[in-house]
C-alpha cells in the first residue's frame, strides 16, 4: 500500500494546521523537482507561488479548518526550478493520532489549465466589449435624442403657426421624421438596457384578450393606410403569466412588422390559444414571407430584412432591433418569440408564454396606451 | 438603525457594556471569529458583522463605487457604530480590517478606545524601500487563481457535510454561509484589499493600537509589523508564536490571551 501511495499518478501531501508539510509522496516530490526528505518539515508556503500563499491563508486553510474538506480547488505549486505547476486539489482535514492533518491529492492539469485560461480570456474580452457597447449605445442615444426633442417641439409649434399648405406639409414631414428617429433611438436604448440586464419585467397572471384588442386598435390606422385587413380570434378568456406592458410592446412590434411586410389586400390574423402549461399568441400574415437563410438571423440585433416593393420608404425600416428586443423581453418573462415563414406565402410569429390559472383583474388597467 | 443591522448581518452577544467590534478580513465572514469571541462575552458587548458583499450581509446593498476603496468598508463600520450608538469601542480587525479600523478611527476617533490589529498590513506590495511582501504580479496571480476557482465556485456555495470534530455543535447553519458570496464581489474585494496603500493614513491615528504579528506570516511579514509599529503612535507590537495569517482560527487561545493581556494593561 505504501508503494502504491508513492507511485500513484497523483501527488499526495499531508500538512498540519500550522502549515508544516508532514508527508509528501514520490510523485509530488518528482513533480516539484525535490527529494521527499527535503520538503518534509517545510511550511507549505515554500511550495506555493506568492498569490497562492494568499489564497491558501485566506481561503483554503479557513475552509479546511471549518468545513474539514475542499474539493476541486485550482492551485499552482511552485517547483524547485521556479516554474508553477497547475494542479487540481482535493483535501480532507482529520485528526490522526491526536494531531489534525490535512491530507490532499493533487492532479496535474496542464491542458485543462490552458483551456480554462482561454475561456477566461474570452470571457473577459466579451465582458469588456459588452460594457463598452452598452456605454456607447447609451451615450449615443442620449446625445441624439436631445437635439431631436428640440426639433420635434419646434415643429409642433410651427404646425399651429404656418398657414401655407406647402410649408405645412414640410413641417409635418419634419415632425414625422422626428417621431421615427425617436422610436429608433428608443429601440437602441431599450436594447442597451436589455443587454446589460437593467430591464425589469414583472410577470403576473393576466387575461390577454384586452391586450390584444388594445394592440389591434393602436395599429388599425396603420394597417388601413397599408390596405391590410386585421383580425383576431380566440383571445378572450385566454390567460398567461406576463408583464402586460411588455407583452403589448412585443405584440405591437410583431403587428407593425407584419403590416410592413404585407402587400395591400393582404391579411393579418392574431390567434390565441391555451396549450397545456403554455399560452401562445400567433401573428399570421400572408405577406412576402422570409427566405430560410434570413429566417435564422431575424432575431439577431441590427438585422433588417428588405421589405422589397412593400416598403414605402427606406426610412421606415428602423434599426433592426425590434425582434431582438421582443425576443429578449419574452424570454425575460419565461417565454419566447419564434418565427415560421415561407417566402412568397407569409409568416407566423408566435409569442410563447407560461400559462396562468389565476388572473390579476387589475392588470389590464395598468397598460399605458 | 434596523436597516444597517440587517444590511451588515450584525450579531450582538455578551454581558458586558464596553463594545468589542470584531471585523473579519478578506475571504470569509464573521464566522472566522467563532473560536475567539466566546472568551470576551462575559466582560464585553461582542458585536460581529459581515461587510456588505460578504457572508450574510445584504447583497443588494452592494455598490461597486462605494466598495472600490477601503473607505466604503470603513463606512460600514461607522454605520454600525452610529446605528448602535457605540462609544469607547475596542475594534478588533483581522488583516485588511486593521486598515479599515484605521480609516474609521481617523474619521471618528472619539468613538474608539483601542484598535486591535490581527495580521495587519498597510500595503501588501513592495515599494521603494518598503517591504510589503508581494510584487504587483503576485497579486495578479492571486486574482487569476480566484478567477479559475470561480469556474468551480459551486464548491464554495454547495452545502458540505460538516465534519469538524472539534466543535460538532456548529452545524449546518455555518455550512450554509461560510465563505459563500458573490465571486465577482469577492474578486473586487481582493483588488481593493491587495492593491490598497494606507501608509499615509497611519500618521493620523490617535487611538492606541495593538499590532499582533504572527511568526512566518506569508501575507503580512515581520517587516510590515515593524513598519506599522514605527508609523503608529501609541502602538504596541506583540509578536505571536502562532504561524500563518489567521491566528484567530489556527491559534485561538494565544490570540485571546494576547488581546486580554493588552486590554488588561490599558
Q: For the report, how would you describe the main beta sheet of chain A?
A: 5 strands, antiparallel
Tell me the name of the CATH homologous superfamily of the largest domain in chain A. Histidine kinase-like ATPase, C-terminal domain
Supply Rg of chain A: 32 Å
Q: List unreliable stretches of 5+ residues of chain B.
A: 152-178
- Poorly predicted runs of chain A are 309-316, 362-369
Count of the domains of chain A: 3
Walk across the major sheet of chain B and give the strand order. Answer: 1-3-2-4-5-6-7
| Alpha-beta classification of chain A | alpha+beta
Shape by Cα distribution of chain B:
globular
Q: Which two chains share the most extensive interface?
A: A-B, 39 and 47 residues
- How many helices of chain A? The count is 10
Task: Give, in order, the helices and strands of chain A.
Answer: HEEHHHEEEHHEHEEHEEHHEE
Give the DSSP E fraction of chain B (strand runs of 2 or more residues): 15-25%
The rounded distance between the terminal residues' Cα atoms of chain A is 78 Å
